[in-house]
Amino acid sequence: MAFAKKPRTTGIELPKMPGDSPALTQRTGSMGSLAASRKRLPTNAPKVFVITGNPESANLDVVRQELLTRGFTEGAVGEAEDFLLKWGPRSKVDWRSLAPPQLVNHYENDAALTTKSGLAENLQSTSSPHDARQFFPSCFHLDRASAIFEFAQEFKFSKACCVLKEWLAHKEAGIVPETFHDEVIRTALVVVKRRLEDIDSQLMGDTDEAKQVDYMVKKREWDVLSAVDFENPGENPACQGWQQLSLKRKQSNLQKKQLLERYDRKLQQIAEHGKAKTRRKKREGSVCSLKEAKEEEEEVEEKEEEATKSLTRERSEKSLEEPMKLSGSKLMEAVTAVLGCLKEHPQFHLNRRNIWILKPSNSLRGHGIVVENDLERLLRHARGKSCSYVCQKYIENPLLIGGARKHDIRQWAMVTSLNPLTIYFFSECYVRIAAEDYSLDDFGDRHSMAHDGFKHLTHTVIMKNHPNFNPDDEDWRCQWTQERYRTLLLEKAGYDVWKDKIRPAMQQIVVASLLSVAEVLTKSDNHSCCFQLFGYDFMVDENYNVWLLEVNDIPMLQASGPVTSRLCDTCLRQAFRTIFDAPSSNPERSKTDEDNLHFEPLYRGPEIPKLPKTASQGLDFSVDGRKLLPKCSPGPVRHAPSLRLSARRDQELQDLVDKRRLREGKEQQEKERQLRLRRSLAKKLLGGKSISSPCLEQLQVQVPREVEGSVGTT
Q1: How many C-alpha atoms does 221 have within 13 Å on its Cβ side?
Q2: Residue pair 256/695 in contact by the 8 Å Cβ criterion
Q3: Averaged over 2-28, what is the pLDDT?
Q4: Long-range contacts for 58-62 (Cβ within 8 Å, ≥24 apart)?
Q5: 597, 628, 659: which is the final residue of a domain?
Q6: Are residues 495 and 392 in the same domain?
Q7: Are 481 and 67 in contact (CB under 8 A)?
Q8: In terms of domains, do 582 and 456 share one?
Q9: What is the reported pLDDT for 83?
Q10: Is 470 helix (H, G, I), strand (E, B) or coil?
Q11: Where are the compositionally biased (Basic and acidic residues) regions (predicted)?
């Protein structure tokens, strides 16, 4: 499929994100208004608009005033079917009846981006064109058992990483008496090394056969890690109990080892007796046939090959058990090496105390959010509810401003077309700040955010309930302008980090997220009748990296203070100007209108032409015709040699399969025979007591056939 050619114009280039493809930065300009690019509004069409839904979702007075100014007339809800524009929630739109030049302010499938579950599934899917780990914290939609299992394993692995990071920080700071016990560190090291093991390290010998690796955290390992308290690292009752259990296990293993050594010596005596008997028979003239000798030789080679595989498997298993024997400087070197490998992950610095945030998948304004670092409480809260939840990695190293308070950034973006994908970016954003200082020491009431919500959340609806909230105070209105935030960043970083890093990263994330869901959005047949305004929420960490939190479908455009009163109304007016008005012939004048607030073109993708359709059916991609046979001279058909060759190959393959099955059957019979003899000998030695099959299988001595009868009489 070829893309339509477009005239060469000046491009809009954004800084590349780590791991980004070069195609993302190729952005063509010359993006006119929606009306100019599609010519969807004929001059003789009746201009009727309809407003539906909750009046608090946006400043509807501004919407009504802007449309009336442009010559529109308002129609009654439910009566005006020939409208040109309908503004309201998605549920009030009849998608089947839409046809150009009608416009609605929603895309039919926008839930793929504007719900927490849809955003998590689409950004982290394998079909996504960008690596979401660079800008979107790990997130799991807990709607099925497999997702809950994956989240639990990720939570446990993350807890092991936090333990290693905290222990290494204690060691470097010299806090030796107050750090974690060595048993805890060795356990966490085993869990992390098992997770980091790649396929190359699993190949065994020259056979290139990979052993089956279980990446799950074992129960006894999680018993130790789950009892870790970061506030009191020296206390771990599970570790002490495990030490006693390990001591008992060592004593039991020592007794088994002594018993097996005694058993091994006895079998060696029996084997030597059998070999001597065989040699005596050979001297007497009882010589084995050539066929029997060959079979014995093949059997010896197979046993040597099996022993080599077993040795390689034991070595690979011991490589995971080696950390359990480390201590002192060697243990510190092993932890440093493992953490060096983990630093390559883009979200390594987000994790300190293994904190996760649980959100209802379809909630708004911070309702139902839980911040927790306990796996059982997270799963208990997510089960048995009327809605599904998403659990996302909490950003534990946020950039703190206004003292030591968290903040996030609300940025507006607008999509006016999906073919070609056309994105606009509002020229200014605003910052929302938490009411209290950020802290990880105490979570307060762990089952609700009634108290800790003032520390960990920044929603204006929640901040209004704080006793010190004051919309007229610059600090206690909990909102900052972009200019004030940019000045603070300049003072902290020593350079214009807003212009050089944060704002370009926000633009890059907007484009990447919309490209990830563009295919889902275009599944609707009437997507050409839609446009949509999105509210993006970003957070900045202490390293000035930008992270996407969520995307809102109807962003709150009601002014809640002096900061938003300047932005909200202007954002709506500029949105309609971008949709309906042609670009201004004087660019300098357009930049000064509305106090420099405007939607600037951000991205325009290639236009994909639609396939033509006939009146009766679509295109037929089938191939019609008849088979052409090669010409041949008259006479008998000479295909016998090829048929004989094919039959011969089939027979050879069948012979190989039969030989393999016969060899495997002999091996299984020999194993069963050896196990029966060992069990019989063990009963003789232990006086009727039984020994477990794994212990019998660990013995390397084979009981010869010549001594089968002597076992019963020994």
Answers
A1: 21
A2: yes
A3: 43
A4: 58/87, 58/554, 58/555, 58/556, 58/557, 58/558, 58/572, 59/557, 59/558, 59/559, 59/568, 59/569, 59/572, 60/87, 62/569, 62/572, 62/573
A5: 597
A6: yes
A7: no
A8: yes
A9: 85
A10: coil
A11: 306-324
Q: Identify whether residues 473 and 566 lie together within a single domain.
A: yes
pLDDT of residue 466: 62
H/E stretch holding 660: helix 640-686
Taking the mean position of all CA atoms in its chain, how far away is CA 47?
A: 47
d(CA 363, CA 360): 5
Average pLDDT in the 490-513 region? 95
Answer whether residue 444 is part of any domain.
yes
pTM of the model: 0.70
* pLDDT value at residue 175: 66
* Judgement on whether residues 186 and 268 belong to the same structural domain of the protein: yes
Answer whether 359's CB lies under 8 Å from 369's CB.
yes
| Percentage helix, strand, coil for the chain under 3-state DSSP, each rounded to 5 | 50, 10, 40
The 10s digit of each residue's pLDDT in 350-400 is 988 899 999 887 666 656 788 888 999 999 888 866 778 899 999 999 999
Confidence of residue 608 (pLDDT cuts 50, 70, 90): confident
Q: What is the pLDDT of residues 40-72, one digit of tens each?
A: 444 456 788 988 876 555 678 888 889 999 889
Angle between helices 375-382 and 145-173 (to 10 degrees): 150
CB contact at 8 A, 271 and 703: yes
pLDDT of residue 569: 87
Please list, residue by residue across 435-450, b when 16 or more beta carbons sit within 10 angstroms of its beta carbon and e when fewer do. Answer: bbeeebeebeebeebe
In sequence order, which ranges of 522-592 are alpha helices (DSSP H)?
Answer: 562-580, 587-592
Least confident stretch, 441-450, 574-583, 689-698: 441-450
Three-state SS at 415: strand
- Crossing angle (nearest 10°) for helices 219-226 and 237-283: 160
Cα Rg, the chain, nearest whole Å: 36
Q: What is the count of structural domains for the chain?
A: 2
Which distant-in-sequence residues (6+ apart) come within 8 Å of 281 by Cβ?
none
Task: Please say if the pLDDT value at position 473 is more than 50.
Answer: yes
Q: How far apart are CA 171 and CA 179, in angstroms?
A: 8
Q: Residue 88 is which amino acid? A: G
pLDDT at 139 over 90: yes
| Domain final residue pick, 582, 597, 612 | 597
pLDDT digits (tens, 9 = 90+) for 233-274: 766 665 555 555 556 656 666 776 676 677 667 666 766 766
Return d(Cα 173, Cα 183) in angstroms, integer: 20
Q: Categorize the per-residue pLDDT at 525 as very low, low, confident or very high, splitting at 50, 70 and 90.
A: confident
Q: ω before 471 within 30° of 0 (cis)?
A: no
| Range(s) of the domain holding residue 448 | 111-138+347-597
Same domain, yes or no: 402 and 488: yes
Among 86-90, 265-269, 283-287, whose mean pLDDT is lowest? 283-287
Give the CATH number of the domain where residue 516 resides: 3.30.470.20
The alpha carbon dihedral of 611, 579, 9, 499 has a sign of: negative
* Contact by Cβ (8 Å): 391, 578: no
Question: Residues 286, 289, 291, CA angle at the centre, nearest 5°?
Answer: 155
For residue 513, being part of any structural domain is answered with yes
Do 217 and 236 lie in a common domain?
yes
Pair (275, 360) in one structural domain: no
Helix, strand, or coil (residue 13)? coil
Q: Do 125 and 223 lie in a common domain? A: no
- With vertex at residue 273, the alpha carbon angle to CA 269 and CA 276, rounded to the nearest 5 degrees, is 140
- Given this model, what pLDDT does residue 10 score? 38
